[in-house]
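If your schedule permits, I should be very grateful for your opinion on a structural question. The matter concerns a single protein, recorded as an amino acid sequence and a row of backbone structure tokens. Could you please explain, in whatever detail you think fit, how the structure tokens follow from the sequence? I set the record out below, with my sincere thanks for your time.

——
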Amino acid sequence: MLLPFNTQIWFYRQPIDFRKQIDGIVYLVADTLHKDPTSGQLFVFRNKSADKLKMSYWDDQGFWLLYKRFEKSRFKFPCIIDDTMELSTQQLQWLLTGIDFTQQQQPEPLIVTNFF
């Protein structure tokens, strides 16, 4: 599975019940987040103990459900509030490796004017 470069990534900060499978996650995206689960956006969810992530993605033919579990460490999450936050691809990579993405600085965009 490859995500388009411009895919929006949404992280739901509130822990969810990880017994939910794809249908429960899709319903959560539509009903609670008020987003279109078939929009091609990536939706990221956490569990209460901060050692698991689930991600949902629609690829025009069906849903992907991705799951990551840390065996010994924990993910670093921002405060728990009933809200979503948009993540950059870089922030998602930091999150997936266990780095506290809220404490990292995004690199400044490079503006190139000369190409030779």
Observations:
- The first strand starts at residue 9 and ends at 12.
- Helices lie at 22-31, 89-97.
- The beta strands are 9-12, 42-46, 52-58, 63-69, 84-87.
- The mean pLDDT is 89.
